[in-house]
Amino acid sequence: MLRLRNLWWVAALAVALLVPQILTNPAYRNIAVLTLIFTACTTSWNMFSGYSGYVALGAGAFYGTGAYTMALLSKHLNVPGNGNMFWLVPVGGLAAVLVAIPVGLIALRVRRHTFVVITIAIFFVFQLSAINANFTGGTGGFTLPYIPWMIQDYQLPFYYVALAILVFAIALSASVRRSRFGLQLLAIRDDEDRALGLGVKVFPVKLTGFAMSAFTIGMCGALYAMLQGQIYPQFVFDPIFDISIALMAFFGGFGTLLGPIIGGLVLESSQQYLTVTYSNGSLYLILFGVLFLLVVLFMPQGIVVFTREWWAKRQDRLASTGEVASVQGGNS
Amino acid sequence: MNSSALIHAVIDGVLTGSVYALMATGLTLIFGVMDIINVAQGIFVILGAYLSYALSVHWGIDPFVGLVITIPTLFLVGIVVERAFIGRLKGPEKTAMSILVTYAISLVFEGSLNMIFSVNYVQIQASYVNQSFRIFGVYFAYIYVYGFILAAVLLGALYVMLYRTRFGASIRASLADQTAAALVGIDVKRVSTICFGIGIAITAPGGMIFGATNTFNASTSYDLISRLLTIIVLGGMGSLGGALLAGILMVTLEDIVGVIWSPIWSTISFFLVLVIVLSVRPQGLFGKRSARIA
Most buried among B123, B189, B194, B274, by the most CB within 10 A? Predict the structure, then answer.
């Protein structure tokens, strides 16, 4: 059983490696890169928020921190515009962790609803600082070193780096889920006071999870800045980013491993495709909103859990014609 | 820095703050009764503003008179939205889901408003919008004063409804404890629906004043909702008096920072105050300790 499941992951990875060989149109390759970036962010966001139940709507602060780290370091270290800039991607992740620790120290003192709002407030502190501070270049933004790659294959290296980040995010999320640390996060989600009573060191666990999820998001922000070649405060510190990744996670299945991956792949690619194909952003907003409302109303646990339950019921129906096989749906 | 600018900042802050307090009261009422964080409150304010704008542009109806139409309209919108989407939410992730659902609702409204009114910024115009009068050497803009009076009257009406009527008592009972309220025979579901309607209806006057004192388009709602959320968290979520005081306090503070330091940093001060207050008092200024935590 376990081996079969691993096979699926290997097959998915093989397909992912082949995608840019089939998609040769640079516009579509760009969509593919952005989809991987968002899926990695969603997976990583879910690793903290989904497992612990603390819905953070300020992930954009880490994304932007990563992006500005990339922009500022490549400028001040005089990094030439070539593949060496990729080495700054994990540095962007580390910068996001450094930022996440003080943010977590403040935000994680409060619970649930208040936590949601305080993350939004902290996010705006970051965005407004980026707009107003001197070293960030203000609203005019920042231009990164020009990378003189062929237009046709420009996205290719970005695609594989983004894929590597996504694989890292999934592996981290999966191993956290299986670990003692992951169980502690899940215990906090179910009942924080009881977890505390049972000896879980609640605050350090939450802070560690929070900082860990910031790492991947910071790396994604750094990669995004490098891909765009230019950043503006409103684009990398984007409130819509915060809520988009939460939507993707809930769409696929909040707190599951697979859900955010499916949600990110489906929603981000279709969003990008729609924006490229129809320039009407308003129509997209309406479609996106309606789609999400339908999912919440008819599959409130997300499509992954919904499909799994539907499949289990089907199996039950098939099995009940023979022996009585009652399988409790205790899977994650 | 001169002191008259400071006095002006305080007066403007109190006057506009009361309008924010009004909008935030709707938000905190909805949260208190239903455990719903209504992120769509921002877009409903903008919807109210656009309704008043359309009435005054197309039919020449004065925005204050137009409230007779816009308040019931938004009340109905609220009832429909609650019945169709919000009322269906349940389970342990209800509050988290409510943020996303109301966000999706606000996306639908944002897209529709963009298509109807375009993304160009507009402002509600009336003869008194750009006029002011002078008392003791201080200038008062008519629209701010009218807005303040309107907000005060409506908040007063809300207070009377909540504390002097039987229906208000059932709302307060639902605020305090939903299960207990249901046990003594209060139809909590009906109370919730009407509360949501009232919370949204309040955005009509709020939006009208906002639209007359600011230029706006549909995406202005993001700035609005983040301010409103900050206000209700600072006041203590579910606390009506807290929302009122925090609204006036925060907007006044923002204006003062704008005058003595720089307008650039005044918006940040708004959010920084929240962060600082919550690190000292996690339950907000007027929230009850450990109330509604799980």
Answer: B274
pLDDT band at B288 (very low <50, low <70, confident <90, very high): low
Its pTM surpasses 0.90: no
Residue A247 CA to residue A244 CA, distance in Å, equals 5
Q: Are A117 and B41 in contact (CB under 8 A)?
A: no
Give SS3 for B287. Answer: coil
Number of separate domains in chain A = 1
Distance CA B205, CA A321 (A): 63
Q: Which residues pair with A244 in a beta bridge?
A: none
At residue B2, the 3 state secondary structure works out as coil
| Closest chain A residue to the Cα of B81, Cα to Cα | A293
Q: State how far the Cα of B101 lies from the Cα of B200, in Å rounded to an integer.
A: 16
Q: Which of residues 83-142 of A touch B (CB under 8 A)?
A: 106, 109-114, 116-118, 120-122, 124-125, 128-129, 132
pLDDT at A94: 94
Query: Does any domain span residue A18?
Result: no
Could you tell me if residue A212 is inside a domain?
yes
CA A100 distance to own-chain centroid: 15
Q: Which residues of B fall within a CB distance of 8 Å from A250?
A: 97, 100
Sole residue written with tokens 């004065």: B62
The terminus-to-terminus CA distance of chain A in angstroms comes to 15
> pLDDT tens digit string along A153-191?
788 888 999 999 999 999 999 999 999 999 999 998 888
Asked if A84 contacts A144 with a C-beta cutoff of 8 angstroms, the reply is no
Compute φ and ψ for B139, nearest 5 degrees.
-85, 135
Q: What angle (nearest 5°) sits at the alpha carbon of residue A294, between those of residues B108 and B40?
A: 35
Inter-chain Cβ pairs, chain A and chain B, closer than 8 A: 136
Of 1.10.599, 3.10.20, 1.20.120, 1.10.3470, the CATH number of B3-280 is 1.10.3470
Question: Cβ A116–B104 below 8 Å, yes or no?
Answer: no
Question: Containing domain of residue A156, as a range?
Answer: 24-239
| Domain parsing of chain B, residue ranges | 3-280
Which residues from chain B sit within 8 angstroms of residue A286, using beta carbons? 107-108, 111-112
Structure ipTM over 0.85, yes or no: no
Interface touch B108/A293, C-beta < 8 Å: yes
